[in-house]
Amino acid sequence: MVYEIFDSSDALNEEDKKLVNEARAITSNAYAPYSNFFVGAAALLTNGQIIKGSNQENASYPVGTCAERVLLGTAAVMYAGMPIKTMAISYDNKNGESNHPISPCGMCRQALKEFEDRTGNYMRLILTGKTGKVIILDKAVSLLPLSFGSADLK
After folding, report:
1. What is the pLDDT of residue 33?
2. How many CA atoms, within 13 angstroms, populate the side-chain half-sphere of residue 94?
3. At 42, phi and psi to the nearest 5?
C-alpha cells in the first residue's frame, strides 16, 4: 500500500485542500441521528466536476447508506462512466473527537474497488477528520487486498 501522511490539511496542495474542505463541509448534510457520526465525501471527477455525498442513516440500521456509496451512486447516475480522480472523506463525531483520519468501512471498500474497475481508473483517497493528520492513498483498491471482483464471477 502506497500512502502519504501529512500533519494537517494545511500541508496539502490547493486542489486537495479544496476537496478536504468540501468533504468537511458536507458532513453537515448527513442524516445521523442514531450514531451521531456525520460523514462527508467529496470527489473530483476527471472532467473537473466536484460531487459530494453524506451518510444517511435509518432506524432500521442496515438500510442506512455510507457517504462514499451515496457519492458513488451520484457519480454513476449523473456522470456515467466518468472516473473519479480523487475522493476526500471526513467526519464529525458528535460523541467525541474528530481529529484523526478515518477509513471507509468494508462495504465501501468493495464499492470503491468496483468503481475503479468499472471506470478503468484508480482514484486517490484523502482520509481525514475535521482536524488533525491527513492520509492520502494512491488508489482505493489498496484498502482491500485480496479483493473479490467481477473477474471472479467468470
Report:
1. 96
2. 12
3. -135, 135
**Would you call 61 helix, strand, or coil by DSSP?**
helix
What does pLDDT average to in each consecutive run of 10 residues of the chain (154 residues)? 94 98 98 97 98 97 94 97 98 97 96 96 98 97 90 88
Q: What is the pLDDT of residue 150?
A: 84
Residues 70-91: b if buried by 16+ CB within 10 A, e if exposed: bbbeebeeebeebbbbbbbbbb
Residue 51 pLDDT = 98
What's the CA gap between 123 and 125, in Å, rounded?
6
Q: Catalytic annotation on 68?
A: yes
Q: What is the CATH number of domain 3-153?
A: 3.40.140.10
**Which residue in the list 22, 57, 68, 114 is annotated as catalytic?**
68
Per domain, the residue ranges of the chain are: 3-153
Cell of 41: 465525501
pTM across the whole model: 0.96
Phi, psi of 93 (to 5 degrees): -90, 105
